[in-house]
Design brief:
By secondary structure, the protein is α+β, with helices and mostly antiparallel strands. It has three helices and eight strands; from the N terminus they run E-E-H-E-E-E-H-E-E-E-H. It has one domain: MM3350-like (Structural Genomics Hypothetical 15.5 Kd Protein In mrcA-pckA Intergenic Region, Chain A), CATH 3.10.290.
């Protein structure tokens, strides 16, 4: 059997991917193909969340193994897709930036009865993937940083303050 997942982003409306993957593969395999097609840094943390029809998160499948036996947190490396992905239309959330709560939406669109798939692949691509990390505005070349040695010049002359504020009691 082959599962076909549609991946979309609420940040970039024209971003869309269709991924074909064998349901006997793990969530880590799905994670890798998403990372590859999105040109993400694979050393960063990510998690899948099984959701209900309104995209509310239910169960986390994490890249990190917490070592616990919580039924609400599973390991990507050990968890096969067919253990939790069973119904066409099933929804997942893939969180790739935890600090800014940025994610991709996945939906199982179709199950094909073919069995000759060796490894997952991207069957369709549209649009550019969202950037993995939001850039801090201070890193932008458009922002000029004042030289600290010239900072006194931006306050004007002291005489101007006396005209506006008058004498101050100290």
């Amino acid at each position: 059997m082959i599962c076909i997942f549609e991946i979309s982003s609420s940040e970039i409306p024209d971003y869309k991917r269709l991924i074909h993957i064998d349901p006997d593969q793990t969530f880590e395999d799905l994670h890798r193909i998403i990372q590859d097609t999105s040109s993400f840094d694979q050393s960063q943390l990510a998690s899948f969340f099984l959701t209900d029809d309104q995209w509310r998160r239910k169960i986390e499948i994490s890249l990190l193994n917490s070592g616990g036996t919580s039924p609400n947190q599973l390991s990507m490396r050990k968890t096969k897709l067919n253990e939790y992905i069973t119904v066409t239309g099933q929804k997942l959330v893939y969180v790739f930036d935890f600090f800014n709560e940025r994610l991709l939406n996945l939906e199982l669109k179709e199950k094909l009865m073919k069995t000759d798939l060796k490894e997952p692949f991207v069957a369709y691509e549209s649009g550019h993937a969202p950037v993995q990390f939001l850039i801090n505005d201070y890193d932008s070349p458009e922002i000029a940083i004042l030289d600290t040695t010239d900072s006194y010049k931006s306050f004007g002359d002291l005489e101007d303050y006396y005209e506006v504020f008058g004498e101050m009691d100290i």
